[in-house]
Every structure is written in C-alpha cells, then in structure tokens.
Design goal:
The protein is α/β, with parallel strands linked by helices. It folds into four domains: 9-23 and 180-323, MoaB/Mog-like domain (Molybdenum Cofactor Biosythetic Enzyme, Chain A); 27-46 and 148-178, Molybdopterin biosynthesis moea protein, domain 2 (Alpha-Beta Complex); 58-129, Beta Complex (Molybdopterin biosynthesis moeA protein, domain 3), CATH 2.170.190; 333-405, Beta Barrel (Beta-clip), CATH 2.40.340. The chain contains seven helices and 24 strands. The chain has helices spanning 9-18, 161-169, 208-218, 233-246, 264-271, 305-323, 377-381, and strands at 25-29, 42-43, 58-61, 75-83, 97-101, 113-116, 120-122, 126-129, 151-153, 174-178, 183-188, 192-193, 204-205, 223-229, 249-253, 274-277, 282-283, 289-293, 296-301, 333-338, 349-359, 362-367, 384-388, 400-405. The strands form six sheets. It has a six-stranded mixed sheet, with no helix packed on it. Helix 4 (233-246) packs across helix 5 (264-271). The two termini are 60 Å apart. The protein binds ligand LQZAQKY5, molybdate ion and magnesium ion. Magnesium ion (MG) binds at residues 255, 257, 259, 262, 303. InterPro entries: MoaB/Mog-like_dom_sf, MoaB/Mog_dom, MoeA-like, MoeA_C_domain_IV, MoeA_C_domain_IV_sf, MoeA_linker/N, MoeA_linker/N_sf.
C-alpha cells in the first residue's frame, strides 16, 4: 500500500489555485446579472449626478439676494416658476426672484442655493427668509458621487444589488460577466440510497450530492448531477469520462481513501490525471484529493459528510471563483473568542463546524456539536468554521481564534432590538 504524504492546507490551496485557467466572459442582460462576477470594470460613463440638483423641496435662489437676512430683517422673494424632478426651469432668475423646486429637479441656470420649504414663510407672491444663504448651499453638485471616466468598480467583483444600481445608472442594459463553470456532481458508494428511498440494513441516504449542489447554488452556480454509483471501477470510470466531456469541473464524493472499494485513485490513474495532492494535513478531509485531467479539475471529496463539506469550501469554492476571475476567492474571515473549551488536540489543522455569533460584547464562536468527520448534524447547525492550527494542545474558552464565515444570508436582530 502506498503511504500518502500530507501537505499543509495552505500549500494544497496554492497548488490548486496555481492551475486555474479562466473560463472567459459573456454578455448578458442586466436583469440576469445579480450574483454573477463582473468581467469588465464599471467606468463612469457620465457624471453622477449628471446635473446640479436640488436635494430638498423648496426654492432655488441666487444666494447673493439673501445677504443680510435675519429674524428682524426678513427678505422677500417672488416666485416666478415651479419645477419638479424631471422638469427644466423655463426662466432664469433676476434679483430677488426664486423658482419653486422639488427634490431631484435641476438647479435653474443662475440659481446657486436652495431654501428648504420649512425655512420660509409664505407671502402672496412668494416667501420671506430669515437667514442668508451661501453659494452652493443645499445643492447636490454634478459629479459629487462619481466623475465621468472614473473607474468605480473593478473587474472581478461580485455583482450585488448595489452593483446593479450602478450599472443601471450608467445605462448598462447588458453587462460583460464571467462565464459560469458547468459543474458535475457524482456520488459514489454501494451503500447509498436516494433521498426518497426507505432505509435498509447497511445503507444510508446520499446527503453529499444534494449538499454539494446547494453549496454550488449558494455561489450562484448550477450543477449537473451524475447521480449515485456503486463502488465499481469500470462503471465509475465510464461516468467520470462522460462527465469530463460534459462539464468544466467534476466533483465526486467518496472512494478517495485507501479502502478496497475506494476506486477514485485508480480512476485518476486510468485517466492519466495529474494528482495535485491526495493527503492534506487537515481534519476533517485529510484524504481530499484534487487531480487535473488535461485541464479539467477533478475534486475527489471525501465521503464523510463533514469532510466533504469542508473540502468543497476550502478547495472547490476558490477554484470555481478563480475560474470566473473573481477578485475574492476565499471565504470571509473573522476573529472570534471561543465560547467553550475545545480540548481535543490534533497535529493537523482542524476545521470545526461552528456557530458564530456577533454580540454587543464582541464575536464569539463555539463548536456546533458532534464534530467527527462523519458528522452531518453539525454541518446543519453551523454557520461558520473554526480554524485551529495543528499542534498538540487544545483550546480553552476565551481564546481568540480564526473563523471562516458561511451563511452570510442569515440575519441578526442584535442591532435592531
Ligand atoms: N486505513 C485508513 N482508513 C481510512 C483513512 C485512512 O487514512 N486510512 N482515512 C479516513 C478518513 S480521514 C476519511 S475522511 C474516510 C474517507 O473515505 P472515502 O473518501 O474513501 O469515502 P468512503 O469510504 O466512500 O465513505 C466514507 C464514509 O462516508 C459515507 N458516505 C459516502 N458517501 C456518502 C454520501 N454521498 N452521503 C453521505 N455519506 C456518505 C460512507 O458511508 C462512509 O461512512 O476514510 C477513512 N478511512
Ligand atoms: O479525511 Mo478524514 O475527514 O480527515 O476524517
Ligand atoms: Mg473509503
């Protein structure tokens, strides 16, 4: 039997990241762009706002006409026009004239200040003022938000609702985004039953396949399921070959260790694939294997659910994001204080499914329960992963630890209540 040599997690990540080839880009409608990755920078096509505008409902005046106004010396203005947002003033101002103007309307030609409605007292022909205004007071200046030609968002950025707003501002009816990889999922294991099947002795339901599909969905990626296969070298090889013709990346689960029915190593050999590593100094997921068949990635994730989950987040996720030339391929990171003792020592880096909570007193994190490699309950309870460097010691309550954040879609009432 071959002895596998474990490599450090950072080395393993580096090895996969170094081999990623970008997938290229495509043009899509703005309405389809949420959740994609920009393959072009957003450059301001014009100033924002594109004209000086009123930030208030009130009156546009020439500031010089308000000079000397006070409670004892109210200055009167005559209103000569009336505009709302989307309308242009038909006249310009002469001395002591004003134009009634609403929020968002363009500042009339020679006006240079806006008086809020609340700052005026109405008269027959207009209003009076009790304070002087200075030039540019209450004016949203053209270009104050963005200047024409400025690079506002760089290529490789995730498109979120704010990005969509900016794209719409500049009239991007279509956007150039990274192509999405087509990702295949194959669950291997003679013991596997489909979700709707009844349990029978010795068998378990396939939870890894649906879990990986959801991990991809959380990234905005679709998947192509190759279902479940019994541990059979020829059948598995045939399906892996088919998947390689039909997908950009194939994720398998199970069969990567050293058991008699663990056939993935033999499949990589048959394919002549370049195995980047097959042992990582991490728990769970030490047997995670990544290979390249020509230029296609084969992620051989462990069958153990917690190991499978962790292997996806640590290796597949950044590779898929880098294929889309994302600028941020790694999981969000935070520091938090351990909320309970974690006594178990291990020479390998540990990735512990955990519950992260941001409290008014600071962030805390604690293991999400039963945490062996085969655990499924803690993946469900967890919203984060604690990273504990390898070593011989355990960790005590109150120690500050590294945390990788998942479930960014979940809310928190702390701030509101
Ligand atoms: N002698 C050794 N034995 C094992 C080693 C080792 O180094 N030497 N490594 C252990 C570690 S660590 C892990 S992790 C597992 C990895 O096993 P495989 O990746 O080969 O996966 P399988 O053997 O196929 O299954 C492991 C476990 O997971 C269950 N499983 C498999 N597929 C699914 C699925 N789709 N959904 C839910 N659960 C699944 C399977 O029934 C097994 O219980 O090997 C250790 N052994
Ligand atoms: O690969 Mo195993 O999950 O380290 O326990
Ligand atoms: Mg095995």
């Amino acid at each position: 039997m071959e002895m596998r040599k474990p490599i450090a997690v950072s080395e393993a990540i580096q090895r996969v990241i170094d081999r990623v080839q970008p997938l290229g880009s495509e043009k899509i409608a703005l309405a389809e762009a949420y959740g994609r990755i920009l393959a072009e920078p957003i450059i301001a096509k014009h100033d924002v706002p594109p004209f000086d505008k009123s930030p208030y409902d009130g009156f546009a005046i020439r500031s010089e006409d308000s000079l000397g106004a006070s409670g004892e010396n109210r200055i009167a203005f005559t209103v000569i026009d009336h505009i709302g947002a989307g309308q242009l003033a038909k006249r310009s101002l002469a001395k002591s004239e004003a134009i009634r103007i609403m929020t968002g309307a363009p500042i009339p030609d020679n006006a240079d200040a806006v008086v809020m409605l609340e700052q005026t007292v109405e008269t027959e022909t207009g209003f009076t003022l009790r304070k002087p205004f200075i030039a540019n007071e209450n004016i949203s200046a053209q270009g104050e938000d963005a200047k024409k030609g400025e690079e506002l968002i760089q290529s490789g950025t995730f498109i979120h609702p704010g990005t969509i707003a900016l794209l719409a501002t500049f009239g991007y009816a279509e956007v150039i985004v990274a192509k999405k990889p087509i990702v295949g999922i194959l669950s291997t294991g003679t013991e596997l039953l489909d979700v709707q099947e009844e349990l029978v002795p010795g068998k378990i339901r396939n939870s890894n396949g649906p879990m990986i599909a959801a991990q991809l969905a959380r990234m905005g990626l679709d998947s192509k399921s190759y279902g479940m296969l019994a541990d059979d070298l020829d059948a598995c090889t045939a399906t892996v070959k088919q998947a390689l013709r039909e997908t950009d990346v194939l994720i398998t689960t199970g069969g990567v260790s050293v058991g008699d029915f663990d056939y993935l190593p033999a499949i990589y050999e048959r394919l002549g694939a370049d195995v980047l590593f097959n042992k990582v100094a991490m728990r769970p997921g030490s047997v995670t294997t990544v290979a390249l068949a020509d230029k296609q990635f084969l992620f051989g994730l462990s069958g153990n659910p917690s190991a499978c989950f962790t292997g996806f987040e640590l290796f597949a996720r950044p590779v898929l994001l880098k294929m889309m030339e994302s600028e941020k391929v790694y999981l969000p990171y935070a520091k938090a204080v351990l909320g309970e003792d974690f006594k178990k020592a291990n020479p390998f880096t540990r990735f512990i499914r955990a519950i992260y909570e941001s409290t008014p007193a600071g962030a805390t994190v604690r293991p999400a329960g039963f945490n062996k490699s085969g655990a499924v309950s803690s993946i469900a309870r967890g919203n984060a992963i604690i990273v504990l460097p390898g070593g011989t010691r355990g960790y005590e309550t109150g120690t500050e630890v590294d945390v990788l954040l998942l479930c960014m879609e979940e809310g928190d009432a702390t701030w509101v209540l």
